[in-house]
Amino acid sequence: MDNDELTSLFERLHRMPELSLREVETTKAIKEVLGATEGVELLDLNLPTGALARVRGGVSGPAVALRADIDALPIHEESGLAYASANGLMHACGHDFHTTALLGAASALAERRNELAGTVYLLFQPAEEDGHGARMVVSAGALQPLGIRRLFGLHVDPRLPAGVVALPNGALSASVDHITITVAGRGTHAARPQVGRDPIVAASRLVGDLQEVVSRTVDPFEPAVVSITRIAGGASWNIIPGSVELEGTVRTMSPAVREAIRSEVQARVDALGAEGYTASLGWEECCDPVINDSELAEAARAIACDAGLELGDFETSMGGEDFSDLYGIAPGVFAHVGVGCAYPLHNPHFIADEAALPAVVRLHVAWATETLRELL
Ligand code: NI
After folding, report:
1. How far, in Å, is the centroid of ligand 1 from the Cα of 233?
2. How far is the CA of 75 from the centre of ligand 1 (A)?
3. What is the rounded average pLDDT for all residues in the chain?
4. pTM of this structure
5. Residues with CB under 5 A from ligand 1 (ion)
6. Are strands 224-232 and 243-252 parallel, antiparallel or unpaired?
7. CA of 321 to the centre of ligand 1 (A)
8. How many of the other CB atoms lie within 10 Å of CB of 36?
């Protein structure tokens, strides 16, 4: 696949974003490209969307896997690009870029398959944005019997110049938990609060209380975030409602801090019981932190350097990435690759610089080729 083909494939995918678990046309497009590439075999991922393929080398040997996510977001695009999406959804997280680079890598690996010292699996993972896709891939069971020894994944990063790779030791992203809190009291006339139990007052106080969880109970040297992002209750100005619902997210980098925050939030929710409210906490663990093993990261950086890629500094964030849920298949290494943009991910103006595509294809190819040699 030459650079023009990569660009037109990227623009095609950019035009047709689809939400998590609804990546039907995207899956078709991926399979169409893979199916038309000599030397690439399509396999069954056992899921309605997403795809799995392999390139077998001339020599039998170990297996490694390269992973891209494929879904988009419910954001109305305002990038002004000629190839902008017009369907009300947007590839504002660059998963179209990830998909294109992996398809480019499939084609490049297939071309040189006789030199490959083993097998390369290509995983096009659905539903990364909703935090469940990687777990679904694991549950679907298609990858476990393949003997995969190493996984590689990457994400575009607008803060880095186009084509620059950041591949740190340790944590790259946070654990992501989704919390839902219901505070139920007793609804009444707004003019007679004394005969009810006002959940709006209690919920407002709880939002403030929850801000103390990180500042007063977590070690200041441990990263942690508690954000309440939605508050819903009431239907009119003169009625005190019966209940209020809160939603938010908790981000941490360590299991101990995650557990400590969970029990502290639970305690503060439970405390409302003593005031005559019925309060409940729902806690959904979406994904674990992505953490690079130092030795594997060192090897992956060396491969990137040898392939002519420039290494840059990594800026940690409390964002989430479900790549960590694939660690049950094999040890994984994750990198960020620059697509130089002034706007952040998940912003309607976000643009991934297509000029970085050939470098990212080269990175995938080098990771797979060199790691197979090292594992042989
Ligand atoms: Ni993303």
Report:
1. 32
2. 13
3. 97
4. 0.91
5. 93
6. antiparallel
7. 7
8. 9
Question: For residue 72, how far is its CA from the centre of ligand 1 (angstroms)?
Answer: 8
- Residue bearing tokens 């169409």: 32
Domain residue ranges in the chain: 3-172+289-375, 175-287
| pLDDT tens-digit readout, 333-345 | 999 999 999 999 9
**CA of residue 21 to ligand 1 center, whole Å:** 15
Distance 285 CA to ligand 1 centre (A): 18
Q: In what order do the strands lie in the sheet with 243-252?
A: 224-232, 243-252, 175-184, 278-287
pLDDT digits (tens, 9 = 90+) for 47-73: 999 999 999 999 899 999 999 999 999
Domain 3-172+289-375 classified CATH 3.40.50.720?
no
Ligand 1 centroid distance, CA of 208 (Å): 30
Q: What is the DSSP string of 188-246?
A: EETT-GGGSB-HHHHHHHHHHHHHHHHHHHS-TTS-EEEEEEEEE--SSTTEE-SEEEE
DSSP string, 343-358: SPTT-TT----GGGHH
Measured in degrees and rounded to the nearest 5, phi and psi for residue 228 equal -95, 125
Residue with tokens 């777990």: 135
**93 burial level (CB within 10 Å; 0-12, 13-18, 19+):** buried
Q: Residue 112 Cα, ligand 1 centroid: separation in angstroms?
A: 30
Number of H helices, E strands in the chain: 8, 15
Is the CATH code 1.10.10.60 the one for domain 175-287? no
Report d(CA 194, CA 312) in Å as an integer.
61
pLDDT of amino acid 233: 97
Q: For residue 110, how far is its CA from the centre of ligand 1 (angstroms)?
A: 27
Q: How far is the CA of 129 from the centre of ligand 1 (A)?
A: 7
Cα 34 to middle of ligand 1, angstroms = 22
Closest CA to 345 of 68, 130, 160: 160
User: How far, in Å, from the CA of 73 to the mean position of ligand 1?
Assistant: 9
Cα 346 to averaged position of ligand 1 atoms, centre (Å): 8
Tokens 């990180």 found at: 214
AA identity, residue 163: G
Residue 185 and residue 244: Cα distance in Å, rounded?
A: 9
